[in-house]
Amino acid sequence: MIKIAMLAAASLAATAAGATAANAQTPVTVEPMIPAAGTVLDVSAEGRTTRVPDVATIRAGVVSQAATAAAALSDNAQRMNRVLAALKKAGVAPRDIATASVGLSPQYRYAENQPPVITGYQATNSVSVRFRDVAKSGVILDALVGEGANQIDGPNLSIDQPDTALDEARADAVKRARARAELYARAAGMRVTRIVSITENGENAGSPNPPMLMARASMAKDSTQIVAGEKDVTVSISVRFLLN
């Protein structure tokens, strides 16, 4: 048994040595980013596509004022409870509602050459609400105002799942880069041989629009309309071509 083990060990050692020698005879090479022959052309391009936003995010808040901090907080809590109940009644899922901010601050009266005097307190509470049916968000906002919400920010319109749109923009970016490279090559009396490298520099999956502030003290006669419009989805790339 000892001889067999020694023979097996010798066989394994010979096999390993043979594999090492084989690897040494077949070196692994990595092509440099700048080929040895030909002319290199670097092109930057931006690809784009459009989508209709399918998510609206709005911040709805309650601002309460009272002579004491406790009274301001109590009134604020009652109003916010009605706002949350209205959201639940409208069918907004709990996962789409999140507290955005809570605050309490004293209110001052200022007079010349006199220290400020506290005249009362202001309590604020706001929630971030995500609407997955943009067309219905305006009607829900009106309902929130009717239940005590007196400050509204938004809407921020965005695309819920932008991956497919981003891939379309990537394909468009490569197409644009290739067309530009062909133009340069023809102008130089050359032709595009192949692509050497592609680098993605950035993407924009339909950034939310700048928020708007809309404060309403009471229900308006007409309902609020939210129009989705379209969003540009873009991807920017840099492509290195080899010309000959």
Question: What would a concise description of this structure say?
Answer:
The chain is α+β, with helices and mostly antiparallel strands. The protein has helices at 2-25, 69-89, 134-146, 163-187, and strands at 39-51, 55-66, 97-111, 114-131, 151-158, 192-204, 213-214, 231-243.
Descriptive keywords:
alpha+beta, Translation Initiation Factor IF3, Alpha-Beta Plaits, five-stranded antiparallel sheet, three-stranded antiparallel sheet
Q: Classify the helix fraction into a percent range.
A: 25-40%
Number of strands: 8
- Tally of helical runs: 4
Overall 3D form = elongated
The first-level CATH class name of the largest domain: Alpha Beta
Task: Output the CATH topology of the largest domain.
Answer: Translation Initiation Factor IF3
